[in-house]
């Protein structure tokens, strides 16, 4: 886990000069999980008797959760709160965890902070940066590790969720087989708050974990990522969001390239 924080860099400047950042991030390793067959795994909406609100929770297959400490009485305090995800860039990781989340600038469904019930949607490179694992870091992961992504796992009070459709405008393409395209965006209104502070006792959203995925190939090669090709509308072969050359990725796919999750 310490090496993962190294990918964030050292930028812990508050997102606003009036916001004081927290000096520590508390982990809760008892609740770390690897999701997938042979580990923590289920099919369909989870039915374990716990109250996660009115929206179903599906297994985030292929991801590892590093759990964050939120409260001693977590289950009681956040009973009925829904699981959701927020993708972001590595350079913003520490600022978000220590200072809070800034509302979206380009807000298609109105001003607020944007989340999704689907990790498949939240990990699109428009949201979740795809970062190459450099050779100096491969001694920490397995040698086959080539790329890494992270997504914030959160809980949100259901009364504060405004549901919207996906914003890539690919209505006829299935993004997540479990969740319809017209409910993939969750907007949480922040009112006059300039920062959504996860540590605020009256917060409507809390960050419960870091979801991390390390792969042996570019994640475009995942079968669940094939919808990405419908979202690329730029004219450059090297897609800056994907951190890869599109032609090269297409050639790899045509040659049968696959992508495997690398577990440490």
Q: What is the CATH class?
A: Alpha Beta
Strand content: 15-25%
Q: Structural class, judged by helices and strands?
A: alpha+beta
Morphology: globular
Could you say what the CATH architecture is? Answer: Alpha-Beta Complex
**How many strands, what sense, and barrel or not for the largest sheet?**
6 strands, antiparallel
Count of helix runs: 5
**N- to C-terminal distance:** 10 Å
CATH topology: Phosphoenolpyruvate Carboxykinase, domain 3
Percent range of helical residues: 10-25%
Order of helices and strands: HEEHEHEHEEEEEEEH
- The stretches of 5 or more residues where confidence is low (pLDDT under 50) are 14-21
Rg result: 18 Å
Indicate how many domains the architecture comprises: 1
Supply the key terms.
11 strands, 264 residues, Phosphoenolpyruvate Carboxykinase, domain 3, 3-stranded antiparallel β-sheet, 6-stranded antiparallel β-sheet, single chain, alpha+beta
Topology of helices and strands:
Blueprint: H1 2-6, E1 33-34, E2 64-67, H2 74-77, E3 82-87, H3 93-99, E4 113-115, H4 119-122, E5 131-132, E6 147-156, E7 161-164, E8 185-188, E9 205-215, E10 238-239, E11 244-245, H5 246-254
